[in-house]
Amino acid sequence: METDIGALRARLRAVLDAVMEHALAAREHTLLAQVPLLLGQYFERLRRAQPGAHDANDDAPASNAWLDGFRNDMQSVLLAELEVRFQPVEGLLAALRAR
Question: How many domains does one find in the chain?
């Protein structure tokens, strides 16, 4: 009986994972597809906010501190995306460990 129940639980986990993947995949894809666009808009907003951003003839070197900040923000966003994409794998691993 224990073997049969274990097999049933494994199949149930697989079916539940497939249902959740199907239900969330379209929404996740739509949201994550927006990330590059939003990062591009954020980059442009930061770039335009810099003094002298509109004056291409200015010989004074512009500060790139904003660019370092953008890189840090972009890295955080990409790591968050990676974490979201790995959640199903982590869930399956947690289920296997619970066996």
Answer: 1
